Description:
By secondary structure, the protein is α/β, with parallel strands linked by helices. The chain has helices at residues 20-37, 52-57, 96-104, 109-112, 150-158, 168-174, 206-229, and strands spanning 12-17, 41-46, 63-65, 77-81, 85-92, 117-123, 130-132, 143-147, 163-167, 180-183, 192-193, 196-200. The strands form 2 sheets. Strands 5, 6, 7, 8, 9, 10 and 11 form a 7-stranded mixed beta sheet that branches. Strands 2-1-3-12-4 form a 5-stranded mixed beta sheet. The termini are far apart.
Amino acid sequence: SPQPFDPRKAEGVIRIVAVDNAFLTLLSPLIVELEATVPGVKFEIYDRYSNMLESMRDVKIDLAIYSTEGKAVPAGFIEMPLFTSDHVLLVRRNHPLKAIATHNGGLTFEDTARFKHIGIALAMGSTENRFIIGQQCNLADKISCEMPYFVAGACLCSESDLLMRMPRETALKLARYFPVEILRQERGLKLPWRPGLFWYRSSDTPLLTWVRSKITIGAKRIFEEAEELLPFDR
């Protein structure tokens, strides 16, 4: 268009694939902001599913919060990393591990082995393809409940002695709403979280380009705020 893009006058539907912690952490602040300033834009959020890439090629899905985790990016797609963070342990308030971590200056795998875990299992549209957080590090967590929902998991965590591994940024936000504590993971454990924006090259529009820039700017702010509250050793 010969006219400059004006987001305040924009209208359209943005269709995004995102699991619930990516929505809570990265997308919900954007939607709150745009609801007040760009009322003509609507969001449709979808869970991951097996033929997600085909839908993006057919322009049925515009964007995904997704990471190829070091694998080759499929032809025609663009992956833009937002940041690299790490995971933490979420426990209920006054959980026994809180006192142990305070007394010993951290936790060991022997400490956490006394308790069962909520396993976050991320699916790709089939029961055969589920990825549990921590599998890449061969963790021997004793799983009491396996689910794909971070928010529901935090609720269960707040009402029991179960532990839950989750990205730092998500945990900090959930701690605003649930009676939970955030603990650093076991000494020596690195479990990165690398959210990224993922889209098909031919789906570019001025509105989508602008939305991606808003997500990128917001992600930088979220990461920097988390670094101030709970910095990791680099």
